[in-house]
Amino acid sequence: MDSNKKNEAINEVSLLRLYLLRGLYLFVVVGLILVQWPEIIDKIIHPDKSWELMDGVVACMLASFSLLCILGIRYPLQMIPILLWEMIWKLLWLLIVVLPLGISGQIDDETMENAISSSLVFIFPFIIPWRYVFANYVKKLGDRWV
Q: Backbone phi, then psi, for 74, in 5-degree steps?
């Protein structure tokens, strides 16, 4: 097998995997439409209501993530980095913040609720096409610097 055919085989992602990715993006979009967007819309309608600083930051970050996931439905492979970002930050938060709180018995109800919803990220590694990620984000030459 020549080099080009080998690279094509590595980069080929099955139609099933593409549909799984699209389903994951759709799952995120629907979940955030149901959970996060009502808060955003309420804030737009009632701008006099105040948010705590981090509540506003998180709401806007999740709203933008949902919009980018809409692009992922159409372009599932190109938007993989947004899934990687989501997976990495949630796994870090679960390992660095939640796990020590749980081990020490100091976890509160709000943190536990967030940890449970964040644990859905554990399905990501089963859907992300890792051979494609490796071939296109690790092995592939980066863009030129000069």
A: -85, -40
Residue 51's SS3 state is coil
Residue 129 phi/psi, 5° resolution?
-80, 95
User: Residues for the chain: how many in total?
Assistant: 146
Domain count along the chain: 1
Model pTM score: 0.84
User: How sure is the predictor about 62, in pLDDT bands with cuts at 50, 70 and 90?
Assistant: very high
* Dihedral (CA of 112, 113, 114, 120) sign: positive
Could you tell me the residue range of the domain that residue 130 belongs to?
Answer: 3-139
Q: Identify whether the C-beta of residue 63 lies closer than 8 Å to the C-beta of residue 32.
A: yes
Q: Can you tell me the distance from the alpha carbon of 104 to that of 114, in angstroms, rounded to the nearest whole number?
A: 18
- Tell me, yes or no, whether 144 lies in a domain: no
